[in-house]
Design a protein that fits this description.
With 337 residues, this protein is an alpha/beta fold. Helices cover 46% and strands 18% of the residues. The chain has helices at 2-23, 48-64, 79-90, 108-117, 130-135, 148-162, 179-191, 208-221, 233-245, 261-269, 280-295, 316-322; strands at 37-42, 67-72, 96-99, 121-124, 142-145, 167-173, 196-203, 227-230, 253-258, 274-278, 303-305, 308-311.
């Protein structure tokens, strides 16, 4: 089945490459089809989540016979640098673009260039702001990513299991105003049972060291804190370090989102109570598959939810062994069943 899926992706890209590239103004005498090309701009590779995403894009491109390039911001907060990379790539003759913006608006200028050129754009992981896209005349081919509100609710369900007697918890978000962080926190708060209350919410800019500092302060000010929810694993691991430094590992439950390899190991070791695992490798693969479908002229779904799984100590080893893919089957609407 996997071999057939790969063949279908390659066939779709080969069939649609000439159409996509011709529409984008490529030259030539029309004697032969140009190879399919995909350009991707993602967040900073200082985070293992986006390292896995890059690998998913490059691996799927190799399988499908696609020439691809992946450029990343220098860090997860490098909004201007990331925008410059897309603007540079927008002036080149790629058949399809995959974008993973740092903020909802930082890539809009480059996206407007692509829209004017009629080039298909696949949005993955972090959504482009709909109002900004509309104002710039940008119509995205599809969005592929985690339902972050749902992921937050899954974390809340796990927190309620970790704290059957209830108690106060703290919430650590990413960059203030970030859409992804906000959605995860929204879902977490909405999913908490009545006995679990949020005593404080802070931002740690997606950074492990900042989360360690914030958690250390919170534990010192609120020695009765029973749990922490972190909007990503890097921050969750920083919080886990603060908990360990306070001698409270196993007494304070730390739950985060992402499913990065070091977080899976931390769950297996009992440092994290759980992580809501996303699969950035699969998101990257789906981005390439969506470009294949767009190149072949297919009508794409407006939104596709990427797979997620709650990982606890009970299933951490299984999750580690199946990484970078989920152990359970999942739907990919861009390829034939």
């Amino acid at each position: 089945m996997q071999i057939r899926r790969r063949a279908l992706v390659a066939t779709a890209l080969a069939a649609g490459a000439a159409v996509a590239l011709t529409a984008c103004g490529s030259g030539g005498d029309g004697g032969s089809a140009a190879p399919a090309t995909v350009a991707a701009v993602i967040k900073g590779l200082d985070n293992p989540f986006f390292q896995a995403m890059e690998k998913g894009i490059t691996d799927e491109s190799a399988v499908a016979g696609v020439r691809s390039t992946v450029q990343a911001a220098t860090s997860i907060t490098d909004t201007t640098g990331q925008a410059d990379k897309l603007t540079g790539l927008a002036g080149q003759d790629f058949g399809c673009y995959v974008v993973n913006p740092i903020s909802g608006t930082n890539l809009v200028q480059g996206l407007a260039q692509l829209a004017a050129a009629g080039k298909p754009v696949v949005n993955i992981d972090s959504p482009v702001d709909p109002a900004a896209a509309q104002a710039a005349g940008v119509q995205l081919a599809t969005y592929i990513g985690t339902d972050n509100v749902a992921a937050g609710k899954l974390a809340a369900e796990q927190m309620s299991k970790a704290l059957p007697g209830g108690g106060p918890v703290a919430v650590v978000g990413g960059i203030p105003g970030d859409v992804t962080s906000g959605a995860r926190i929204e879902g977490f708060k909405a999913g908490l049972p009545g006995g679990v209350t949020v005593l404080q919410e802070v931002a740690a800019n997606w950074e492990r060291q900042e989360a360690l500092t914030q958690a250390t302060t919170i534990i010192g000010a609120h020695p009765d804190v029973k749990g922490f929810f972190a909007a990503n694993d890097d921050m969750g691991l920083g919080i886990a370090r603060a908990v360990a430094n306070a001698g409270k590992t196993g007494q304070i439950a730390v739950i985060s989102v992402d499913g990065n390899p070091d977080a899976l190991t931390a769950v297996a070791n009992g440092e994290l109570a759980a992580t809501v695992a996303q699969y950035p490798y699969v998101i990257g693969q789906m981005g390439v598959d969506a470009c294949a479908a767009a190149a072949s002229g297919a009508t794409l779904p407006a939104k596709v939810d990427a797979p997620v799984q709650v990982v606890t100590k009970d299933n951490a080893q299984q999750a580690i062994e199946s990484a970078p893919k989920p152990p359970a089957p999942y739907d990919n609407p861009f390829t034939a069943k």
